[in-house]
Amino acid sequence: MMTLNNQRIILTGATGGIGIELAKQLLPYGCKLGLVGRSMEKLEQLSSELNADDAFNGYSNDHITLITADITTSEGRHQIVDEMEARFNGYDMLINAAGIMDFTSFLEQTDDRIEAVFKTNVIAPMQLCKKVIPYMLAQNKGHIVNVGSIFGSIGFAWFTSYSSSKFALRGFSQSLRRELAETPIKISYIAPRAVKTSLNSSAVYNMAEEVKMNMDMPDVVAKQIVYSIIKKHKEKYLGFPESLFVRINAVLPGLVDMATRSQNKSAKKYVQQD
Ligand SMILES: NC(=O)c1ccc[n+]([C@@H]2O[C@H](COP(=O)([O-])OP(=O)(O)OC[C@H]3O[C@@H](n4cnc5c(N)ncnc54)[C@H](OP(=O)(O)O)[C@@H]3O)[C@@H](O)[C@H]2O)c1
How far is 212 from 27, CA to CA, in rounded Å? Predict the structure, then answer.
């Protein structure tokens, strides 16, 4: 079990559907949050929401700092650690929750966009880990939480780049966890199923309705993520039966090819709406 009280946390993706809920749920534990996003306007909106809420009264201003940074640039990553050092004298945890996604035919995705998906979802989280781990080792404590996806264990048609980027993030988390096993640094990989946020376009929502894809509310997912952090889960797949499908796909991928064939055909017509 880990206590969250006074944990200094870098939260990327703070302005997103899941990130906003994570911020709201981490604050009452007394955490100090570096809220990271590219848009100062969205960060300020989140900050006023937190300050206006009686539930956070008294500690939100002292406990948050807004960091406008693009995690795919080295300048942005520098800015994140510099601001945490200046404001909170360091950090104890990094939650990599920023991400981008496309629901599209792989052949129609541009080379630049494929690169952006991998830079945002895999390479930047790796580079951020590389940036914070030496400090964590020197402090003799630290926890890194990579937010993956069920799509990072089951390859989904029409989400090919996104799905493969989350496969990579899962592999990175597992390898790094083993590499750091003899150190006090903890690495967690937490994989939600689909969540109702603006990461998903209206075409995804329409497709999800037709193929009966389960979609969770972001506050529920944030609660599960916080629970997994407290429990120090190494790998956690959220939602049933999706967590079972992850295991079936690992041993019998051919069966899953067959089982998803008709769903993939139905999904195709929604791809064309995007
Ligand atoms: N929603 C789902 O169905 C779902 C399911 C499973 C897993 N997940 C994962 O959960 C995480 C959060 O997803 P979400 O649904 O909350 O997404 P979202 O609502 O679309 O928010 C995405 C967040 O990522 C930030 N971001 C994107 N590119 C960035 C960059 N280059 N630099 C800095 N920040 C950047 C965005 O900030 P700005 O745009 O303000 O810069 C925003 O805060 C992602 O890793 C996603 O893959 C989501």
Answer: 34
Provide the residue range defining the domain that includes 197.
Answer: 8-271
List the beta bridge partners of residue 4. Answer: none
What CATH number does residue 74 fall under? 3.40.50.720
pLDDT tens sequence across 64-106: 999 999 999 999 999 999 999 999 999 999 999 999 999 999 9
Residue 3 counted as domain residue: no
**Residues 71, 14 contacting (CB under 8 angstroms):** no
Q: Which string of b and e fits 132-156 if b means at least 16 CB within 10 Å?
A: bbeebeeeeebbbbbbbbbbbbbbb
Pocket flag, ligand 1, residue 199 (CB < 6 Å) = yes
CA of 228 to the centre of ligand 1 (A): 19
In a domain, 112, yes or no: yes
Find the catalytic residue in 59, 91, 135, 162.
162
